[in-house]
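I'd like us to work through together how a protein chain folds, taking it slowly. We need material for that, and I hope you will provide a protein of your own picking. Go ahead whenever you are ready, and we will take it from there:
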Amino acid sequence: MKKNANLYDPSVASLSEEVTETLYADEWVRIERIISTGQASPEGFWYDQKENEWVCVLEGQGVIQWEDGSTKVLDRGEWVLIPAHVKHRVLSTSTAPPCLWLAFFWRR
C-alpha cells in the first residue's frame, strides 16, 4: 500500500501487462489505481464482485460490458457505479494514452 504518490505517474506501466496498485485498504474499503495498456477481460470472463465499485477513468478510455451485452464507454473524467454482484467485464482499454483508472471498492 502506497503512503503517497502521483496518480499520473506512469513509471510502473508496462506495454504487456496491466498494473494494479492498492493505494489504500482496510476492512471496509479498498482504493486502487489501475493502468491498462490495451488489456481486456478474457473472453467469457465476468467480474462478480462482493463489493460495490465506483470507478473513474482519469486518462484514456475504457469500455465496460454488462452481462446483458450493453456497454458503457468511459472517457477521461467519466465514472460509473457498479453495485455488488452486477456481472461486468472490461471490453477494451486504450493504449495511447494508457487507460488510467481510479477505483473505490466497499461493502455495505
User: Anything to note?
Assistant: The first strand starts at residue 19 and ends at 25. The chain has a mean pLDDT of 93. Strands lie at 19-25, 29-36, 52-59, 61-66, 71-75, 79-82, 88-93, 99-106.
